[in-house]
Amino acid sequence: MINNFGLKVFSGRTNVGLAEKIAQILGDPLGKVELKNFPDGEFWARIDEDVRGRDVFVVQSTCHPVNDSIMELLIMLDSLKRASAARITVVLPYYGYARQDRKAEGRVPITAKLVADLITAAGAHRVLTLDLHAAQIQGFFNVPVDHLYASPVLMQAVRKLPCDPREFIVLSPDEGSVKRVLRYQKKLNVNMAIVDKRRISASQVESANLIGASLEGKVALIFDDMISTAGTVASAARTACTVGKAKGVYIFATHGVLCGDAIRNLREAPVEKVTITDTIPLTPEKQIPKIEVTSVAELLADAIKRIHFNQSVSELFV
After folding, report:
1. Residue 247 a catalytic site member
2. pLDDT digit string (tens) for 37-85?
3. 250 φ, ψ to 5°?
């Protein structure tokens, strides 16, 4: 069944490049919106075309600067709601605050839930997102959530590696990533190993042991949902080479947060290549030869079309 209201994609300012790719695939230019900052730091938005009765999708990664990105998104949603859009779907390629998803100690917030409530209250009817840090965050929203995985896109990058697939072994950088990494292990039909990670502090990680299949003479493929400071994946790569005697290491991650010492850690790590997606823009100062970016635009555009035409999105949940 085709909706009787037209599809339109709008973008905030955090990831215009990805939004433009999505709009191009869908065959329609981005919606016209004026966004600006007042001298005192307040945000302002105006939708510069008619959206009454339309099916609207707003693309905004809530990445650095995280709080500004979220506030800009909320103001855009309120503008679209007051402009009488029939349905507003928030497309969150990267969901900031996702790691604050539980009370690990007393008297702390569950900020991932708070942000979900804000997005819903601002006018979102639906959310489309990619590789949440914890799948249960879907339950924080009081509207439908379509949670996609970037594995099809990253698997394309794996198949382009200049290596014999028979030499591959999938490596989980820590115990917490095992469930996620198992998806890739099953797709590749290869053996798997796990890094026994010992954390020194919130920013320092020491990895010393390997559990599972032998890495000796193998090419280790490390998969993670995000690379933040790169401490975990860099340590896992060193462990793969020094303890496991792997002959090569490749890293694949959906979200390239790349904050703090991430670039230095990746530059110094014994890694052939780091593949991330464009859920977060890779700024010029972070562009090093080791890092390769692959796009999730087609995956998101496909999901947007399915949502608009009321078709199943579950086929994309792989």
Report:
1. no
2. 999 999 999 999 999 999 999 999 999 999 999 999 999 999 999 999 9
3. -125, 140
